[in-house]
Amino acid sequence: MILNLMPHLVNGLTLGLLFALIALGFMLILGLMEQINLAHGSLFALGAYFAYAIATPRLPIPPDMLQAWAAVPLGWRYLAAVVLAPILVAPFGALIERLMRRTYGKDPLYGLLLTFGIAMVLEDLIRTVWGTRDYTLPVPRDLSGGFFFLDLIWSRYRFWAAAFAVAAIAAVWLIVERTRFGAMVKAGAHDTEIVQALGIDIGRLRTGVFIFGTMLAALAGVIMAPIWGIRPHMGVDAVVPAFLVIVLGGVGSFWGAVLAGLLVGMVVGLSGAYASEWSLLSMYLLLIAVVTFRARGLFGKKSALEA
């Protein structure tokens, strides 16, 4: 029985780690700017599409250069996609942050509506450039296919994706907890006026955080693409679980987001194995169950109203 559950547990673990990676970028932006970025999912999708353009290759470069790039082994093209796709998506994040500046300090609804409109624009841009068909991101032979273990077939790529997500989450933790940039982000999330009084340019800090969050979303899109496939509305499939993970883990909590991502991934993975029609509904039921007994999420801080 437990042995039969193992593949579904591994799938859920991989999915949960990738949900956590998406949610961490979402949380950093929400924590510093107090704005919900609904375009986060579209940036996730852009990362997947840019990776596809680099790896296949379908780049807008001269034909002789494109031919030379196509002759490069797939492993190197895939590695280039993992590195370059988040960098190519970063300017979109910088532009969105620039557009959001007029909403800072105002009703969060303005930022919500603005990023919703931007998400619609980005999705239409994707449809215009790449069309409406689905794509598959090719992966190197060493990462694709399956292998036998304990009389079961295991997906090699899912283990790679889980290991990569763990490394990326650890890197984010080091940046947030062990660097001057991370210290400024945490201070800015607590009190922007004090940060400004210390001579820190809050505008540049916000831009830096938004670009960092954007690159995390794009990186998650690259790693998730071989599992989910690439399609124009894949951003919606990502932003909803990311928001749910933030609420479930507690707004502003790093480890809350990681734990909530794992919980959501496991619930979706296990329910999908035995009742696929319940797989998406199960994460909403999990949210209701947790929030009913703990309104601020698993690791959310107590508000003044609860004191």
Structural summary, described in words:
A two-stranded antiparallel ribbon has the order 1-2. A hairpin with a 2-residue loop joins strand 1 (146-149) and strand 2. The chain has helices spanning 2-33, 40-55, 63-70, 74-100, 108-130, 156-178, 180-190, 192-197, 202-228, 234-249, 254-274, 279-293, and strands spanning 146-149, 152-155. Helix 1 packs antiparallel against helix 9 (202-228) and helix 2 packs antiparallel against helix 4 (74-100). It is an all-alpha fold. It is built from twelve helices and two strands, in the order H-H-H-H-H-E-E-H-H-H-H-H-H-H.
Quick take:
This protein is mainly α and 307 residues long. Helix content is 73%, strand content 3%. The protein has a two-stranded antiparallel ribbon.
